[in-house]
């Protein structure tokens, strides 16, 4: 169903990311060629392609970690070089890993997702602890909340990264193969959760995945665009916003 307020304000159609004729090369290897694409507010964009097609490169350009060799990228309507509002964006890169000696606990790492750098030393209140408990619960890591992050398995660490990205419900969440190494039940809960967040909580997603069934199941069978061997699938949401704030309600 279309949300009246959103539709009348034209609100769900703001551009969040705009790529204008973008190319990228590593030395003399051209990976992205003359690609233009728009991610709009409340889009869910699925990115699929074979190994080495350039998916991670595309995402890293979109979050400002790589500078295009040609073309322009805008973020929330601003040229990316001037964009400063990074707190609006969550990014979970591929193959995260903590140094085994990193001293923070799982709970501390997840809570850190609530704070921008300037607010890092704020006292953690009850409301924040509640959000943290909620994020730990949906990623099934409550039982390891007090463990040191560096001592966890790869799959457990990945769940911590996802909980950290979800806790603050960023306007845009960018996920690079988010469920690699995660068990089947947690994977299926995670997708249920993010599809609900997309449909009903005004979040925009950009996700690289090799799971064609997941991508086609939610985004349909026809890609909207191609970038070389990369296919981009898009679903836009006009669903009614859901008023329940916690993350757990989205799991049935
Ligand atoms: N730092 C780098 N320096 C040089 N070449 C690179 C670098 N990173 C990636 N490449 C090359 O760019 C191409 C695209 O790599 P990219 O990691 O973007 O692919 P991908 O689609 O994400 O692959 P995968 O599915 O394996 O994660 C590959 O040929 C890769 O070897």
UniProtKB/TrEMBL annotation:
Gene3D superfamilies: P-loop containing nucleotide triphosphate hydrolases. Keywords: ATP-binding, Nucleotide-binding, Transport. GO terms for molecular function: ATP binding; ATP hydrolysis activity. InterPro entries: AAA+_ATPase, ABC_transporter-like_ATP-bd, ABC_transporter-like_CS, Metal_Ion_Import_ABC, P-loop_NTPase. It comes from Paenibacillus anaericanus. It comes from the Bacteria. Belongs to the ABC transporter superfamily. PROSITE patterns: ABC_TRANSPORTER_1, ABC_TRANSPORTER_2. Residues 17-252 form the ABC transporter domain. This is ABC transporter ATP-binding protein.
